[in-house]
Amino acid sequence: MPFAKRGPWGAVAVLVLLGLLVPGAAAQPKPVVVVQSGEAATLDWHMHCDKNAHEPDRQIFDTLLRRDLKTLKLEGNLAESWRLLTDTTWQFKLRRGIKFHNGEPFDAAAVKFSVERMLNPAQGAPGRTSIASIDHVDVVDPYTVNVVTKTPFPLLPVRMSPGHRGAPAIERLVFRPVPELTTRVAALLSGQADLVSDVPPDQVAKIKASGVARVEVSTLGGFVIMVKMTNYLMPGPWQDARVRKAINYAIDLDTIIKTVLEGYGQPLGVPLEKEAFGFNPAIKWWGYDPERAKALLREAGYANGFELTLHAPNRRYMNDIEVMQAMAAMLGKVGIKATVQVWEQSVYTTKWRKRELLPAYMVAWGGAGVFDGDLLVNSLHSKSALAIHKNEALDKILEEAQGTNDPERRRALYFKAQEIIFEDAPIIKAYQQAHIFGISNRLDWKPWIDNMLFLYDARLK
Amino acid sequence: MPEWWARHRRTRTFLAAPSARFGLVVLVGVLLCALLPGRLAPADPNEQQLLARFTPPATRTGDGTLAALGTDQLGRDILSRVIHGARTSVLIGMSAVLLAGTVGTSLGLTAGIRGGMSDHLIMRLADMQFAFPFILLAITVIGVLGPSIRNIILVVGLSNWATYARVVRAETLAVRERTYVDAARSLGLSRPRILWRHILPNVSASLIVVATFGVAGAILTEAGLSFLGLGVPLAIPSWGGMLAEGRQFVDTRYWLALFPGAALFVTVMAINLLGDALRDALDPYLVARRAVGQL
User: Fold this and answer.
1) Higher pLDDT pick, A345 / B136
2) How far is CA A283 from CA A270, A397, A419, in A?
3) How many whole angstroms separate alpha carbon B225 and alpha carbon A325?
4) Residue A447 pLDDT grade (very low, low, confident, very high; cuts 50, 70, 90)
5) What's residue A58's pLDDT?
6) Which residues of chain B have pLDDT under 70?
7) Residues in CB range of A448: below 8 A, 6 or more apart
8) Percent helix, strand and coil across chain B, each rounded to 5?
9) pLDDT in the model for residue B168
10) Which of A457, B27, B48, B235 has the fewest Cβ atoms within 10 Å of its own Cβ atom?
11) 3-state secondary structure string, chain A?
């Protein structure tokens, strides 16, 4: 994630790729228009964790490494090669001849500036924790850089590569916020937009039948959605692991996905993709078993049920309110009186940061193309942002895994972590949401593996 | 013609208008739904049949039950939800008007009878109330207190008192100069008694008309707030909430939004027609002219 060191906007200067200068992109009559659910608050890559900002950012900033789309393996991008020198030192050799759009060369100093800017606590970058293991960056020579971590940090290359570079064929790209779902689809069908993400499932048939646009679905690397439950921030039956397991057994997630999500999702159990390193296939995650749920509730002393508030976001994830309502109705069948409380988007975010969405709330993680058990740290470590659950054994294992370079040892630790999660049930279910894109027929593009809009390789037909 | 019928000239005038009869019939229906939703609705309004979601109107779901108005995105019976929604609308409409009417009438009477400083103060307060944007107030109050039926009644009620205060004050100013009020005063009746027995009954005609339109307005406001997600909680069926949920599917599954929308439309229209007819019946000038015309 290199930034320019100077320039009129200082660090927010934009890296324009050499690819942009490649001739052959003929003058286009009309720009390609992407409609999003909202406006980006900032385009400073370091300063947000917001999908609406990531989408335009991905077209602007570039990364050291990237993932091969077929094999999911990392490959060089702005860096030619990289290797582990010692347990805590990663060396990157940089590609030569790349320039920022202000003509400044891309070199080791730029990498150092960029990483250390994000690392600086005073900068207040929301994604800082994901690279917090980095201690400092050493410039070896203009095209060699050493990244030194405090403890072994096997995920470092992954953190350096959430993107990909290609030669853009599209000259002008416009991002336009359109908050209303159906209006976004209408814009696509009327030719005012070329690309729409987060298409609701019930609109798929309409787009397919339109003749002017098509639907592409990407299932891998989508959001992993879960309902987090607290075990210490609010007194109540949910402090008992048996009750939390009972809640999981009471919900028929397969039916919810088949109906409410119209099949555009897959149940996971744990907030980790099946393709991820460290996913434990041996665990049979809590299935639908209302009798077992009732037995667990009886055992825990809640045979007559209790009241439970589930906090839901308002159209942040696919049919989120309906998923929560369906869960609440199923909980009602085992005697738990669950009510769904929907909050307006900004209120939800505020309450979420203050940890006021208790005892349970819906949230998503992932989509960053990490494919590693480390995702469990983001979602379930008690010190992670927005965590409301505490399990010291789990914390310890996840920390140990984060500081282990040996892949077999790490895998074993993540397997163990998932066994703890299964017994502790800190979440209500977890499922992966497919991402549905509506694409104008004049645009030749397929969704990327991590669901982020990445349009370097898009072209007009 | 029975004697009481001959004597109730206002009632006759009122019922003479076909629009009033229509309004009355619709309102009786809506009130019945509001009072006995459990008896009239064929199903539990919150019962989900996920496998029977989006059943079109007048078709049978998988288990053979007839979904007369179809089912929604969670497979809930829309007819049952519309019937139960009437209760929410009527409850909020009436309570909000009762609250606004009580507050507004008390303040209007006070302003009208006392005059001077209190009059000035109350009327300027009313001006401020009129100048304040309602949606802003609603978002603030609901945001702070949380969405619930009680809070919606509070918001709608307290933001409409000024209308009642103005109407009642104007009527009071006229009525207090009448000779029977002078007579009551010279008999030594207390001010509250004069207000209650001699002034209030004579301003009530205008009050009833304003309140009728107020109920319609409050029902629409509740629907609007629910549509914006500031309304009643999800577990309570409401027409505005159903409209909001159905909006997303309006081009693919029309019935989700059509029926609650139609219920809202017909109910509000009925109340407004009734209000018109009431105004005509209670307006002494109009009634007298009709009576002359009949002679």
Assistant:
1) B136
2) 10, 18, 7
3) 20
4) confident
5) 72
6) 1-7, 284-295
7) A69, A164, A218, A454
8) 75, 0, 25
9) 95
10) B235
11) CCCCCCCCCHHHCCCCCHHHHCCCCCCCCCCEEEEECCCCCCCCHHHCCCHHHHHHHHHHCCCCEEECCCCCCEEECCEEEEEEEECCEEEEEECCCCECCCCCECCHHHHHHHHHHHHCHHHCCCCHHHHCCEEEEEEEECCEEEEEECCCCCCHHHHCCCECCCCCCCCCEEEEECCCHHHHHHHHHCCCCCEECCCCHHHHHHHHHHCCEEEEEECCCCEEEEEEECCCCCCCHHHCHHHHHHHHHHCCHHHHHHHCCCCCEEECCCCCCCCCECCCCCCCCCCCCHHHHHHHHHHCCCCCCCEEEEEEECCCCCCHHHHHHHHHHHHHHCCCEEEEEEECHHHHHHHHHCCCCCCEEEEEEECCCCCECCHHHHHHCCCCCCCCCCCHHHHHHHHHHHCCCCHHHHHHHHHHHHHHHHHHCCEEEEEEECEEEEEECCEECCCCCCCCCCCCCCEEC
Give the per-residue pLDDT at A116.
84
Closest CA relative to residue A49, chosen from A385, A431, A420, A405? A385
What is d(CA B82, CA B257) in angstroms, rounded to the nearest whole number? Answer: 11
d(CA B11, CA B29): 20
* pLDDT at residue B90 in the model: 93
- Residue-wise pLDDT for B209-257, tens only, equals 899 999 999 999 988 888 877 888 888 999 998 998 898 888 889 999 9
Contact A457, A448 (CB under 8 A): no
Most confident of A62-66, A157-161, A174-178, A336-340: A336-340
What is the ipTM, given to two decimal places? 0.76
**Contact present, A306 and A275 (Cβ < 8 Å):** no
Question: Residue B7: what pLDDT?
Answer: 67
Distance from CA of A249 to the nearest CA of B (A): 18
User: Number of Cβ pairs closer than 8 Å across A and B?
Assistant: 53
pLDDT at A103: 76
Q: Is B234 on the interface with A (CB under 8 A)?
A: yes
Structure tokens belonging to residue A419: 């066994």
Chain B residues whose beta carbon lies within 8 Å of the beta carbon of residue A309: none
Q: List CB contacts of A409: < 8 A, sequence separation 6 or more.
A: none
Phi, psi of B54 (to 5 degrees): 60, 35
Closest-CA distance of chain B to residue A347, Å: 8
Residue (of A114, A110, A108) closest to A93 by Cα position: A108
State whether residue A419 sits within 8 Å of chain B by CB: no
- A310 → chain B, closest CA residue: B234
pTM here? 0.78
State the Cα–Cα distance between residues A7 and A25, nearest whole angstrom: 27
Pick from A376, A387, A383, A191: which is nearest to A270 by CA? A376
CA distance A63 to A208: 35
Tokens, residue B34: 């509001």
Q: Are the C-beta atoms of residues B267 and B259 closer than 8 Å to each other?
A: no
The closest alpha carbon to B152, from B262, B160, A394, belongs to B160
Q: Does B143 touch chain A (CB under 8 A)?
A: yes
CA dist A34 and A44 (Å) reads 19
Tokens of B112: 């009208």
SS3 (DSSP) at B59: strand
Chain B hits for A342, CB-CB cut-off 8 Å, are: 229, 234
**Positions of E strands within B179-265:** none
Burial class (CB in 10 A: 0-12, 13-18, 19+), A93: middle
What chain B residue is nearest to A344 in terms of C-alpha separation? B229
Alpha-carbon gap, residue A88 to A367, rounded angstroms: 27
Whether the CB of B38 is below 8 Å from some CB of chain A: the reply is no
Task: Point out the residue among B48, B235, B252 whose CB comes nearest to the CB of A202.
Answer: B252
